[in-house]
Amino acid sequence: MGNGFSEHHFPLSRLPSFQTQHVVILGLDCAGKTTVLYRLRFNEFVNTVPTKGFNAERIKVSLGGRRGRACFHLWDVGGQERLRPLWRSYTRCADGIVFVVDSADAERVEEAKSELHKITRLVENKGVPVLVVANKQDLRNSLSLADMECMLALGELGGSTPWHLQSACAIIGEGLLEGLQTLYAMITKRKAIQRRRLNECD
């Protein structure tokens, strides 16, 4: 699910494969951010503890077929309420944002919505692509993607913010690769548009 963007609209080959994308992983505490990070880094489940600062890893993701690989520098930032004011420092100059939501914790979705909209409405984050990871979809009481989209009010993020809602289970890695591939595609399109505008101004 997303706001009208699809992989068919922006080829993944526009960016050099050696260019590293700076991506910040945000979300409430206990949403599974660090599990997402280390599943992507090591392709295995790693027991984690609440992040008090940040974790950082560099990873390469296959784009499939002959499209090569994309390089990401991922920053996983603590989601406790006292740490959230620091998010702004990490998203400054970010190429993309991964926002992880616990889809089995309906009581905190409203809180997640508030933080998501707050960070995307910052002037410096205008237009930065957002991958919303609906984590813990393997649990029986998890919300559907349609419910998540509605409760997070993703349609209200604005036309300038590309977003994609990805079903995922970080423990086994389901949905994470597909989500990053889509995020990379959104980043690619944004940078292509920025380059075109610069050329028009020359």
CATH class: Alpha Beta
Biggest beta-sheet profile: 6 strands, mixed
Can you count the beta strands?
6
Total of domains: 1
What is the overall silhouette?
globular
Radius of gyration: 16 Å
Number of helices: 5
CATH topology: Rossmann fold
Second CATH tier, the architecture: 3-Layer(aba) Sandwich
Name the CATH superfamily classification. Answer: P-loop containing nucleotide triphosphate hydrolases
Mean pLDDT: 88
Task: Please list the strands of the largest sheet in the order they lie side by side.
Answer: 2-3-1-4-5-6
Class from secondary-structure proportions: alpha/beta
Structure description:
This protein is of the alpha/beta class. It has a single domain, classed as Rossmann fold. Helix content is 30%, strand content 22%. It has 5 helices and 6 strands; from the N terminus they run βαββαβαβαβα. A 6-stranded mixed β-sheet has the order 2-3-1-4-5-6, with helices on both faces. Strand 4 (96-102), helix 3 and strand 5 form a beta-alpha-beta unit. The protein is globular and about 55 Å long. It starts with 19 loop residues before the first strand and ends with a helix. Mean pLDDT is 88; it is low at 4-17. May play a role in apoptosis. May act as a tumor suppressor. GTP binds at residues 27-34, 79, 135-138.
